Amino acid sequence: xxxxPAARPGLDPTPPPAAKxxxxxxxxxxxxxxxxxxxxLTVFFVxxxxxxxxxxxxTPAPSGEIGAFQPDLHFGIxxxxxxxxxxxxxxxxxxxxxxxxxxxxxxxxxxxxxxxKAGGARNMLLVLVVAPFxxxxxxxxxxxxxxxxxxxxVVSFLHWLHVLPQGTALTASPVAVVAxxxxxxxxxxxLPLYSSLERxxxxxxxxxxxxxxxxxxxxxxxxxxxxxxxxxxxxxLTFIPAAGDYVNAALLGNSRTQMIGNVVExxxxxxxxxxxxxxxxxxxxxxxxxxxxxxxRRAGTEELV
Length: 305
What we know:
Blueprint: H1 17-56, E1 59-60, E2 69-70, H2 76-116, H3 122-130, H4 137-147, H5 153-160, H6 174-198, H7 202-210, H8 215-226, H9 228-243, H10 247-252, H11 260-269, H12 274-299
C-alpha cells in the first residue's frame, strides 16, 4: 500500500516551460550585458597584473645586458624589496594617512554646509570643488612650490607668528609633500561626503533637536553615523591613490621624503630593474588591500556610496 501523498492540482512545483524559457532569457541577457565589462577588466586589469607578477619573478639574464631578464621563480625578491625599502613603505602610509585625516577635517564642514546650508549657492560650490580638475595635476603641484616658497606669504606669515624659525624652509620638506597630497586629493573626499550628507532626511536631524540634543550632540549621534558611508568612501578614495603617489614627493620633497612610488618609478625608468619594481608594486597593492579590508570591517559598513 503506497503512503505517498496524492498530488494536488495546481500545486505542481515544476515551473512551466514558458517560465524556464523566460528565466534563461534573462540570464542570457545579463551575461551579454556583463561581457563588455568583463572583457575590459580581463584585458586591462587581469592580464597586466599577471604580467607584472611574472615580471617580478624574473632574474637578470646571463648576458648581463641592461634590461635583459629571464623567467624564473625568484620569490626571495619580495623579502629583499621589503628589507631594502621598508622606510619608503612606512613613509608612504604615514604621509597618506596624515593627508587623509586632513582632507576629512577640511571636507566634512564644507560638505555639511553644501548639503544643508548653501541653498542656491550649492551648484556654484560644486563647480568650485571640481574646478581644479580642469588644471594639470603637475601644474597644480608645481604651484605649491611657489606658495610655500621662502619669499611666499605663507612662510612670511608663519615667521610673523614665530611658528616657523628664521632660516627654515617649507619647500623640499615633509610639510610640503603632505600639503600637496592633501590639496590634490581633497575633491575625492568632498564629493562622496556631500553625496552621503545630501541623502540624509532633514527630518531626522530635526527630530534629534526635538529630543533636546544640541547641535554637537545631533552631529555626533545622528548626522555623522548616517554619513558614515560617505566617510568610508572618501577616505578610501583619498588614501589609496595617495599611498602610491610619487608626483608630490618628486616635486615638493627631497631625497629624505621619497615615497614608495618614487622608488618604483626610479626602478622602472632609470635603473631598469623591472623585477624589483614589479615586486614593490605587488607589495604595495597587497598592503593596501589588507588595510582597506581591515578598515571596512572596523567601520562596520559595506555601503560605500
